[in-house]
Amino acid sequence: MDSTPSPSSSSPFELVSSALARYIPRGGRAAPAGPADAPDDRADAPDDRAVGRRVPEDAADGPQDQILGAINVDTELRITRCNLDAPVFAGVEAVPGSPFVDLLPAGDVPTVTRRLRQVLETGEAHVARIQRLRRRDGSELVVSLSILPAAVPQDGLTVSVIAMATRLHLYAAETAIGTSLDIGETAQSLAESLLAWGDVAAVDLDFAVWTGEGVIEQGRGRIRLRRAALVPDRAWPEGYVTPGHDLPGDASRLLAQAVRRGDTPQAIVMPDREAVERVLGTPRVMRALVPGDRSAGVACIPLVLDGAPPVVLGVAEVWRRADVPFRDSELFDLQELVARTAHHVDLARQHQREHTQVLALQRRLLPRTGGDTVEIASVYQPATPDSAGVGGDWVNSFPLPDGRTALVVGDVVGHGLGAAATMGQLSMEARALLSAGLAPDEVLEHLDETVTMLDDSESGLAAGYSALGSTCCIALYDPVGHHVTLSSAGHLPPVLVSPEGHAGPLAIRPHPGLGAEFALREPFHVHTFDAPPGSLLALYTDGLVEDPAVPIDEGIDRLAGAVSAVHPWDTLQQAARRVVATLAPARQRDDVTLLLARMIGYRKEDTATWRLPARYDAPGRARALVSALLRRWRTRDDTRENVLLLVSELVTNAVRFATGPVTVRLIRSGHGLLCEVGDTGNGRPRLNRGGLLDDGGRGLHVVHGLTSRWGVRWTDTGKVVWAEVGR
After folding, report:
1. Hey, how many other C-beta atoms are within 10 angstroms of the C-beta on 500?
2. What is the DSSP string of 314-350?
3. Cα 539 from Cα 374, distance rounded (Å)
4. Of the candidates 191, 293, 202, 190, which has an alpha carbon nearest to the alpha carbon of residue 241?
5. Distance between CA atoms of 183 and 402, rounded to whole angstroms?
6. Integer Cα distance of 90 and 141 in angstroms
7. Angle subtended at Cα 220 by Cα 216 and Cα 222, rounded to the nearest 5 degrees
């Protein structure tokens, strides 16, 4: 060790060392304590022998109150001087000329190096980082590490270290463990904190806890533990259970039985190899649970959730060498730490359950198929759980009964179950209304009313959640006319790529989001644009294109460029993933959603449209035109007869109850024939229960009997009655 400098020096290292000089003389032994300095019998007094550290006997017999040390490093982060003479630092080899990072566990090197260089560059101290230092015997010492800049930058840095006293460590551990709602990170933080009492620490959780389910019944035959965390990070023996893997069934059962004595969970200690073998039994269980030959003793502490009866969430294990047995005071501290943090594990479990439910709902809303006339691909990439969980993005695509395809994308305000519930309600409502034949602007009007109702303090969602300002965009693709009808409520404009490769956002008028104040409300605009076969339409949410550093228009232009690079022969799903990988921000703060739709449409030879005057002879003319077409299509005789009768009834009803011209359209698809008859009437045909002699509604009964399904959709000029007949 380097000699202690004069107290008159002014560098941080010399100031810290001068403070040490009053207590620790050169040579590494603590000065004899006077009567006023005599250590007491507190359970939290640090004792390196008790925590599995290799300490000289004469040093261990002396006072253990000195916990402060100092290390000086140059601008290359190499040690120049050090003062770690306190016995608590025995085994920490800070050799002048060696890199400071040699004192650190491998996994901590990048983070600490970044902090050191940051202090060098900014001159601002980094204070009180909980850190582990490696000892020469492979064990580790938990310290509070502070990085102090020198008065002259060329003099480098001073790193002060304070060996963590037990009570201080308990406080630091509890505050560190409660910072994440991810169950894996929570378990990892607990394991890292437990490492201060041993050489290896592991946390095994009930599988139901790991998956977010509630642990209610814990029968002996249903025990299943999964390793959630393990420290330190090193190469483990073959057969040893590492994080993410289930413990063997007999190992899970033995651990669960060991910590449950009757109805009371309690900590147990197996002090040596003989006791471990006696409890664990088989070589297979020994390989799975014992981390190595040096670790022979173990303390198993249950993670208990208070209740009647108490519920065991899992087991924490602390392993150490057999020659350093656990003291009663240490077991008390271990139980206190685990008890303080068990509720954090349960909070993470609840968050995991909520996250899983929301994500399952999100996945279920993703499009499954686009039908015969449009190819669909979608990507949903949730934000990380630590950024407040899965959000309210939703995307859907489904064929409508009349042959069109609906493309819907929305972004509900907020995250979690409140946003998920609203998202599911709006998605299902939009699908039902579109399937009932409503136009996109009419559907948005209903969704606007729904969001307003959900925000009502009496009839809406509770817990202060508000969906006001949510956005939605609805597009309907007509595969016969090759055009798209679109309405938007505050959503970013879709991007359209022409068959020639020209790409750009659609020029749609902006509109407030759903649930806007009454004074801001205005009719939803309907935009219609051509989408010939080969066109590519991209609908998305703002998480894909938003970047605080650039304007939103630039993000949309980047999306247009990425989508225009999609080749017509590319697999659309792979192309969608490639676009998201290119555009999604590295630090994702919001959900990312993308829907790509490649328009295919119907061939001209598979459709036919006629406009007939609303006269008495219209049904006959329609039958003649349809009959000739069905012969060209080589339709079966029974199908042709059914279609002719169907067209005759629909045209007759149109002439009888409406005015203006009648439009007849026939579409041949892979699974049947779609017949459409449009008129200028606004009445809704209904299937009534009429008597045998009641002629009213007879046509609809015929239609109902001949078709696999039928319905009505509304247009700007009237309505269209459609019906499908199997081929």
Report:
1. 10
2. EEEEEEE-TTSPPPHHHHHHHHHHHHHHHHHHHHHHH
3. 14
4. 202
5. 47
6. 10
7. 60
Helix (H) or strand (E) holding 311: strand 311-320
Q: What is the pLDDT of residue 43?
A: 35
Mean pLDDT, contiguous 10-residue spans, the chain (727 residues) = 42 59 39 33 36 36 62 92 85 91 85 89 82 80 84 83 68 64 80 82 83 58 78 81 84 73 74 82 83 78 76 85 80 82 76 68 61 84 55 81 88 74 84 89 91 67 67 93 92 93 88 75 88 93 84 90 89 91 76 90 88 89 92 88 88 82 87 86 64 48 77 82 82
Widest Cα–Cα separation across the chain: 121
- In sign, the C-alpha dihedral spanning 12, 15, 20, 21 is positive
Asked if residues 60 and 48 have their Cβ atoms less than 8 Å apart, the reply is yes
pTM value is 0.55
| Helix 328-365 and helix 183-194, axial crossing angle in degrees, nearest 10 | 170
Cα–Cα distance measured from residue 445 to residue 521, given in angstroms and rounded to the nearest whole number: 10
DSSP-derived secondary structure letter, 279: H
8 A C-beta contact, residue 594 and residue 381 = no
Alpha-carbon span 675 to 671, nearest angstrom: 13
3-state secondary structure 622-634: HHHHHHHHHHHCC
Taking only the tens place, the pLDDT of each residue in 133-187 is 888 887 777 787 889 888 777 788 989 888 766 656 666 666 667 666 677 788 8
Rounded-to-integer distance, Cα 600 and Cα 34, Å: 92
Burial of 710 by CB count in 10 Å (0-12 exposed, 13-18 middle, 19+ buried)? buried
HSE-CB of 675 using CA atoms within 13 angstroms = 31
Sign of CA dihedral 260, 262, 264, 268: negative
Q: Which residues contact 706 (CB under 8 A, 6 or more apart)?
A: 642, 645, 646, 723, 725
Residue type, 182: D
- Tens of pLDDT, residue by residue over 316-353, are 889 888 777 888 878 888 888 888 777 777 777 777 77
Residue-level pLDDT at 220: 44
Q: What residues form DSSP beta bridges with 269?
A: 299
Distance of alpha carbon 667 from alpha carbon 468, whole angstroms: 42
Distances (CA, A) of 16 to 68, 498, 629: 8, 71, 98
How many residues are listed for the chain in this entry? 727
Distances (CA, A) of 519 to 413, 522, 525: 21, 8, 17
629 contacts: CB under 8 Å, gap ≥ 6: 608, 666
SS (H, E, C) 392-441: EEEEEEEECCCCCEEEEEEEEEEEHHHHHHHHHHHHHHHHHHHHCCCCHH
Question: Structure tokens of 196?
Answer: 């201060």
Tokens of 268: 């147990």
Could you tell me how far CA 315 lies from the centroid of its own chain? 26
Q: What is the DSSP string of 181-240?
A: --HHHHHHHHHHHHGGGSSEEEEEEEHHHHTT-------GGG--EEEEEEES-----TT-
Sequence-ordered list of residues with C-beta below 8 angstroms from that of 61, at least 6 positions apart, any chain = none
Tokens of 636: 């079966």
Q: Which two tokens stand for residue 616?
A: 């008495």
Strands lying side by side in the sheet with 662-668:
607-612, 662-668, 672-679, 719-726, 709-714
Query: Of 696, 662, 667, whose CA–CA distance to 681 is shortest?
Result: 662
Checking phi first, is residue 694 left (phi over 0); if not, alpha (psi -120 to 50) or beta? beta
DSSP state for residue 655 in the 8-state scheme: H
Looking at residue 111, its amino acid is: T
> What confidence score (pLDDT) does residue 22 get?
43
